[in-house]
Each structure stands twice: as C-alpha cells, then as structure tokens.
Amino acid sequence: QEDTGLQLQPLLEGQNYGAAAAKGTQCPSVSRNSPAVKNGLVVAVLCFGNLINFMDWFLVPGILMDIQKYFRLSDGRTGLLQTVFTMCYMLAAPIFGYLGDHYNRKVILGAGIFFWSGVTLGSSFITESYYRIFVLSRGLVGIGTASYSTIAPTIIADLFEEGKRTTVLSIFYIFIPVGSGCGYMLAAGMAKITGDWHWAFRVTPCMGSLVLVLLFLLVPHRIQRRTEKHRVLSISGTIRGAAEKSGVHRAGKTTWCQDVGSLAKNCSFIWSSLGLTAMAFVTGALGMWVPLFLYRAQVVQGIVPPCLQESCNSSNSLIFGGITIGTGILGVIAGAEAARRLRKIHNKADPLICATSMFISALCLYTALMVAQTNILSTFIFFAFGELFLSVNWAVVTDILLYVVTPRRQSTAISLQILVSHLLGDSGSPYLIGLISNAVQARSTPSFQQSFRSLQCSFAICAFVGVLGGGFFLLTSLYIMEDRKEAER
C-alpha cells in the first residue's frame, strides 16, 4: 500500500516524481530537463497502452460478419458479445478505482495488461462449438482492460498541473479513436491476409507484452500524488513533524462509501457523467453495428453481393476504421483547442461545448440513417461527421471531472463514471440494437431488404439518446462553477 505518511519525508527532500517535478520542486543537483523527459516517457508508455487497449476492444466489430457466420448467430446474440465485454469492464472499474487510490498504480496496470493479453491470445483458439467460452473470454478481457482505463488518466493527473494536463489528456484520449480504428483495420486486415479471423486475436497480445516491458522499465514505481505535494507546500519548515504526517495519513484513510457519498453531492459530476453515458451509448452502438449496417445498405443497393463465401468482405471495416482514426484525432484536438480558447471568455465553456457537439452529432447520425438506402457515399460522410462531433467531448469531459473533484477522490470518481456510463450506455446498446433488429425482422418474411430496415429502425434510437446527452451537459453548466470552487477549497 502507498503510505502517504511514509512518503512525506522524501517529498520534502525533493526526491518526488510526478506533479511536484513538473512544477520544478526538485533537488538543485537534478537536471531541469530530467523531470520533463521522465514525464514525457511515462505519457508515451501510457498512450501506447491506451492504443493497444482500444485496439483489442474493437477487434470483434472489425470482423463481425465472420464471427456471426462462424458461430451462426442472430443479431441479438451477436450484440451480446460486446455487451458482456462492457458489462465485465464496468463492474471491474470501481474495484480498480479503489485499488488505484490506495495501492501502487504501476503494479495494478501491469497485472491488468498481463491478464487481458493472455486471455485474448487464448480466445484465438476457440472453435465454433464453444461460443459460450468465446463470450466468457471477452468478458475476462473486459476485466483486464478496466484496470488501464481507470488508473492511467489519474497517473497523468498526478504528473501535470491543470494548464498542461488538458493538453496531455487530449493526447492520451486521441488514442481512444485511433486505437478503435486500428482495431477495425487490424481485425479486417488479418482476416483478409490469413483467411482466418482468429489471427486477429494473436497480434494485440504481443503488443501488450511490449507495453508491459516498457511500463516496468520507464514508469517510476511510485508516483507522488498531487494532494501530497499541495500539503507539503503549505507546511512551514518548523512544523513538518508528526502532527502534519498524522493529518496526511488520516486524509488517506477515507472509505469508499465516504468518497461515493461526497461525489453524489457533486451535481457537475453527476450530470456530466450522465452526458458521458449518452455518448457511450451512441459510440457503443455505432462501433458494433456500423460496418454491418453499411454492408446491408450496399447489398440492398446492389453495390455488393451477399456474403456466402467462407471469409466475408471486410472493406467497410477498413474504411470505417480509417474514418474513426481521422475523425477521432481531429475531434479530440478540436475539442481541446476550443475549450482552451473559450474558457478565457466564458467560465462554462466546457459543458456548453459538449452539449453543442452532442446535438450536432445526433443530427448527423439521423441523416446518415435516412440516406443509407439511396446514397452510400452520403451515409459514410454523415457517419464521419457524427463521429467527429462525438470525439470532441472525450478530453473535455475528463477534464471537467478532474477540476470538479478533489484529487484524492479522482480514481474513485473515474471508476464510478466508467461504471455508470457503461452500465446505462455501451454495455447494453449493442445488445439492445440487436434485439430491436430481431423484433423488427420477426414481423415479416426474412429478406436482405428487411434485415437492412430492421437495423435502420433500431439505430434511430441513437439519435434520440444523443439529444438527451446534450441536455445533460446543459444541466452540467448550471452547477460547474460552484462545484469547481468547492473542489479547489
């Protein structure tokens, strides 16, 4: 366990890592560039890990047609794959959040990477008779990846103060859409090259092993918490004794229930988490079903023939993966830059940016669904704009959390946000879309036209949820100034 009382003395002597180093609190003998280089290496490793994390997340959607045909699945059972993954991910997140606030974060990250890499590799050898084992393996991978998504952002929060933190978080969150897009492209590419979709699950474990090695070589074993640094800076040189150490130790002893109770009173945290939940619902549904929806639209238009051969055409996954990468990078950068500029003229800029982007995204997604049967190019374009405006929010929402929640509750807050956003968002949306599609198909004679119509109708719910998410961010703007001042106090 990371004992804050024991770490206080090294911090006073200037031997700390992380945020204190980033602010220049260091020994005179240490090079001025050394802390910046160390912090940069840590961020590079964390970004690379985030890339692999989300590549693995989107392997299944990238080869969805192959998996659906291999296990002979309906739309509902197909959507269950991503739902089980996300359910396990979200249930594990609060556990890792608590562990990240009280134990060594580097060890937890390493254990999580090792676990999900091993399970992903094992799942590549599952045959068509063992669909339930394949579903179980995806759930176990979700547990492993929860450790990374929960803890990595808080390490960045420890390393950088608010001005630089937004920029670094933007870089970190760029790798969510980049990793997602690379997951589509890796899965589709490996299936095309080898003729066997199982090979898609044998690449990311090798990359995960590399992340594990870099993590233990480059990331410090202990990274000082910003809360500890702030306490130290407020201590007079004559009263650095047992009384202050005892105060620090007591501050670290808050229970999980006490932390949750405090967060439940934070209106900005609650409403922004619900806005993120709406984002997660939409992105989960899009990430799972868009390549298959595009394929069915092309079949209806006569652009491509129905998939009857052993390995299906994965060109839509490749294109959608490229779109996800491009719109993700552009969206995250645009969101961070808009937030940086607009904060100077408006104190509530962050939630207003999120609300506006959600409304525009919902309109674009609805338009994409409406034109899908007649113009596939327009469908691609409107889906791209829908993803672009969704991506605007990733770094901004996280930054909202980091300045309305006190630092020593941030891992718990992030884990709770992950739990809520996935429980009510993307854990159920892929399965819900599949169930609605099944229900619509059951009303008439099966045909390619009907399979397209069923998915089109079920997808329409995403536009409604997007508008709802915009409303949640508007409510966030009503409370954000008060909650930020409270966190600063």
From TrEMBL:
Transmembrane segments: 41-60, 80-100, 107-127, 133-156, 168-187, 199-219, 269-290, 318-339, 351-374, 380-405, 459-481
Cell compartment(s), UniProt: Membrane
Alphabetic keyword roster: Membrane, Transmembrane, Transmembrane helix, Transport
Ranges for domain Major facilitator superfamily (MFS) profile: 42-481
Record's bilayer topology term: Multi-pass membrane protein
One term of GO molecular function: transmembrane transporter activity
UniProt GO cellular component terms: membrane
Pfam families registered for this protein in UniProt: MFS_1 (PF07690)
CDD domains linked to this entry: MFS_spinster_like
Family: Belongs to the major facilitator superfamily. Spinster (TC 2.A.1.49) family.
Name used for this protein in its record: SPNS3 protein
Gene symbol of the encoding locus: Spns3
